[in-house]
Specification:
The chain is mainly alpha-helical. The protein has helices spanning 2-6, 18-28, 32-43, 53-63, 81-92, 97-119.
Length: 123
């Protein structure tokens, strides 16, 4: 996936919308122009805004789809990692493997915990 990010028309990866456009190209086989239009429509911005770091920082913050963090300006309470990936999956209506895997593992862990709890109780 790094190569797709690098060539996603200079959209600067997660600093702007390059990661989202690349995700659409890879998961849906969209051409670049089509992927940009789809992402812009889903984000509620113009195609030209996709490469604007400042505009996209605000959009990413508002939608909870992850922002670039550095040590000087952390964003307390903002979605990161899995939370951001889950929001991206829902927003773009695409599968994200790690989100699906985490959901399966979480469900399995909850089932196992319930089985242990109910198995030790007697009527």
């Amino acid at each position: 996936m790094p190569a797709a990010h690098a060539i996603a028309s200079g959209l600067n990866g997660i600093r702007a919308a390059g990661d989202l456009v690349a995700r659409m190209q890879l998961t849906r086989g969209m051409r670049l122009t089509e992927a940009k239009r789809y992402v812009a429509d889903r984000l509620g911005v113009g195609v030209s805004d996709l490469s604007d770091n400042v505009a996209m920082d605000e959009v990413r913050k508002d939608l909870g789809i992850g922002r670039v963090m550095d040590t000087e300006s952390p964003y307390p309470g903002q979605p990161v990692a899995m939370e951001a990936k889950t929001a991206i999956a829902e927003l773009l209506d695409v599968p994200v493997n790690c989100v699906a895997r985490a959901a399966r593992r979480t469900a399995a862990a909850v089932q196992a915990a319930r089985a242990r709890t109910s198995g030790g109780q007697t009527g």
